[in-house]
Design a protein that fits this description.
By secondary structure, the protein is α/β, with parallel strands linked by helices. It has a single domain, classed as Spore Coat Polysaccharide Biosynthesis Protein SpsA, Chain A (Alpha-Beta Complex), CATH 3.90.550.10. Strands 1, 2, 3, 4, 5, 6, 7, 8 and 9 form a 9-stranded mixed beta sheet that branches. Helix 7 packs parallel to helix 9 and helix 9 runs antiparallel to helix 10. It is globular.
């Protein structure tokens, strides 16, 4: 039986978080989807854990050139008509997969479907804080939407993509930090049909070892590369004079200030953003 959705999970040395993600998924209707894990040669027992799942999880473990190289490898392995690229620490709601499958059946012209996520921050002391439970539905998907990351951001981990979109646009660009947003901007520029529904796909958890937290400035500079390819002069100015300095400042605050103080600043920042969103 061909699964409706292939859930692709790149990972490396995050066994416990990966197990939580997989176990949450396997509690749902496994006839609807397949799980494909692309492991970057982990040495923390990840492979041994994956073997325990038997044929319930398909996986590959070998060296790669990063997350987007892992995603590209998965394109050669998946069997599903639609793909969801998930983080290894996401808590995915199996019910959202059925909602996405229904959408693709109802709207056969949809190329990419975005749902949404409840966002949490998990500090180094293990305390988890809800950032936002708002799922803002966008309707006009210009490249700028993916370049600027305006709040609440459109979540890449909540994106369902028809397999044939990659036949039309090519693979993820492994040379750019934030290759997922480059792909969405490329899709928007090419005129792909992109829609969003208020589907709670997952709980998105930002922890200290998340790549997004460790490489904020690098990701912001990656957005500048995307803007030069697909954006406008206004997008470039926004990134240069607001977004990149903001991300650098956040990275320095996280790196050098006490956890409790950083958490208080975050709570205030998120409260203001949620009021304005």
């Amino acid at each position: 039986m061909i699964p409706t959705i292939s859930i692709v999970i790149p990972t490396r040395n995050r066994r416990d978080k990966l197990k939580r993600t997989i176990d949450t998924l396997l509690a749902g209707d496994t006839n609807l989807f397949e799980i494909v894990v692309i492991d970057a040669n982990s040495n923390d027992g990840t492979v041994e854990m994956l073997r325990e799942y038997g044929d319930r999880v398909r996986w590959l473990s070998e060296r790669d050139k990063g997350e987007y190289d892992a995603r590209n490898k998965a394109l050669k392995l998946v069997r599903g008509k639609n793909l969801l690229f998930a983080g290894d620490d996401n808590v995915i709601y199996p019910s959202s997969l059925a909602e996405a499958a229904t959408h693709f059946q109802t709207y056969p012209d949809t190329d990419i479907l975005f749902g949404g996520a409840y966002q949490y921050n998990e500090d180094s002391d293990g305390i988890r804080t809800l950032i936002t439970d708002k799922i803002k539905v966008h309707h006009n998907f210009l490249p700028s939407v993916f370049i600027k990351s305006q709040y609440p951001t459109i979540m890449s981990d909540a994106a369902f993509v028809r397999r044939n979109v990659f036949d039309k646009l090519g693979e993820f660009d492994i040379q750019i930090t934030g290759g997922d947003y480059e792909f969405w901007a490329r899709a928007a520029k090419a005129g792909m049909v992109i829609r969003q529904e208020p589907i709670h796909v997952l709980d998105y958890i930002l922890s200290p070892d998340s790549a997004v937290m460790r490489k904020k400035t690098k990701h912001a500079i990656g957005r500048l590369q995307i803007a030069r390819r697909y954006g406008t002069f206004s997008d470039i100015m926004y990134l240069l004079f607001f977004f990149i300095p903001e991300q650098y400042l956040i990275e320095m605050i996280i790196k050098y200030l006490p956890v409790s103080f950083v958490r208080s600043l975050r709570k205030l920042n998120w409260k203001l953003k949620n009021l304005l969103a």
